[in-house]
Design brief:
The complex is a heterodimer of chains A (202) and B (159).
Chain A: H1 9-14, H2 16-19, E1 27-31, H3 33-45, E2 50-58, E3 66-74, E4 89-97, E5 103-105, H4 114-125, E6 128-130, H5 183-199
Parallel strand pairs in A: 1-4, 5-6
Antiparallel strand pairs in A: 2-3, 3-4
Chain B: E1 2-4, E2 8-10, H1 13-22, H2 35-43, E3 66-70, H3 78-87, E4 93-97, H4 98-103, E5 124-126, H5 133-148, H6 154-157
Parallel strand pairs in B: 3-4, 4-5
Antiparallel strand pairs in B: 1-2
Helix pairs in contact in B: 1-5, 2-5
The chains are: A alpha/beta (202), B alpha/beta (159).
């Protein structure tokens, strides 16, 4: 049975993380949403003392639509050999969140750093974290509506049209190979023609 | 003004007041974005805004005469800027420094106010991204000219 966590072939093109080879510095792992909390508890008991960041990504045409990424770091306290000194273990844990039920369990009780990171995702992606002690907006104003970093959010906000700007003739608007025009170009061409006429007799 | 034989200096009180006022335009300590770096260099010895009497960046809006909006104004910052402007005592002046403060600049998006003049009245706009420190100095010069010519700034100017 295909898991909703494993994107389809069509979805693979929309999800760069499914194509990316494992990077040496971190173990990348995908978990089901139901198993997320247990996996994170397990990783923490294995010495993942730091939750560096919690990120999110929106793939609008994929199922599940959102990815939430937990960046974990373990700094070895008891190293087996000198070679292991300064080689921390990193784990990147991905979990898919479907668009019709954007909830995840909070881990703010496990790592204090998850508090603000989860608030940021709630603010910008509209994913709610159940069990979070203080889930409110952190970057946008408190009375803001919508989740700005979702791909279907209008760039200029829901209420505003594009700001009128004067139309400048840009270089990119001119087709390649178009001869230069204008007074400066004409003066230059006259100068060139004059110089060539002077060169001819010699 | 003329000097009388008995070593008196005669002048109109109004002119003296304006001279004093224009020579001590105190800006508010408020940096919003990268333009604030140029604003700081205006205060530093190389450009030395102290030559115009404006080196005292006040930490309280109650003591400031001039607000330099130095950078893009986020939607979240706009009500705070309005509040600071309202807390400044009249007469007061506003410089909109740079493209972002004047028009939103390159940030034509949901998060940035498209021109601080939608929130507070602006006296002088400084173009540039960021403007040179000379540009800001010139803007302060223009404010001084306004004061010497009897401009009041703030609410009184629009009464």
């Amino acid at each position: 049975m295909p898991s909703p966590q494993n994107p389809t072939v069509g979805g693979t093109a929309l999800d760069p993380t499914s194509l990316r080879p494992p990077i040496d510095d971190a173990e990348i792992e995908r978990v089901e949403r139901d198993a997320l909390r247990d996996r994170l508890v397990g990783l923490r008991s294995q010495g993942m003392a730091m939750l560096l960041d919690v990120g999110a990504a929106d793939y609008p045409q994929r199922e599940p639509r959102f990815d939430v990424v937990y960046h974990l770091l373990a700094i070895p306290t008891k190293v087996a050999s000198v070679a292991e000194v300064g080689k921390p273990r990193r784990v990147r844990l991905l979990v898919g969140v479907p668009a019709d039920d954007t909830t995840l369990p909070s881990v703010a009780d496990l790592w204090a750093s998850a508090d603000w990171a989860e608030r940021e995702i709630f603010d910008l992606f509209g994913i709610t974290f159940t069990g979070h002690p203080n889930l409110r907006r952190i970057q946008m104003p408190d009375d803001w509506e919508g989740a700005p970093l979702r791909k279907d959010y209008p760039l200029r906000g829901p209420a505003r049209e594009k700001t009128p700007r004067p139309a400048f003739p840009l270089k990119s608007n001119v087709p390649a190979g178009t001869p230069p025009s204008g007074k400066v170009a004409e003066a230059l061409q006259r100068q060139i023609a004059k110089a060539r006429n002077q060169e001819k007799p010699s | 003004m003329e000097v009388a034989p008995g070593q008196f200096l005669l002048a109109k009180l109004d002119e003296v007041a304006r001279w004093a006022q224009s020579s001590s335009v105190w800006p508010l300590t408020m940096g919003l974005a990268c333009c604030a770096i140029e604003m700081m260099s205006v205060q530093a010895p190389q450009y030395d805004i102290a030559r115009l009497g404006s080196e005292v960046f006040r930490a309280s809006p109650r003591q400031a005469d001039l607000m330099i909006v130095s950078g893009r104004v986020a939607q979240k910052m706009a009500p705070i800027i309005r509040r600071l402007y309202d807390q400044m005592a009249d007469p007061k002046w506003v410089i909109s420094m740079g493209a972002c403060a004047s028009s939103g600049g390159v940030f034509d998006n949901y998060a940035v106010v498209q021109g601080v003049d939608t929130v507070i009245p602006v006296d002088v706009y400084v173009p540039g991204c960021p403007p040179t420190p000379d540009g800001l100095l010139y803007a302060v010069n223009l404010i001084q000219q306004q004061i010497r010519q009897g401009g009041r700034g703030g609410i009184l100017a629009r009464a």
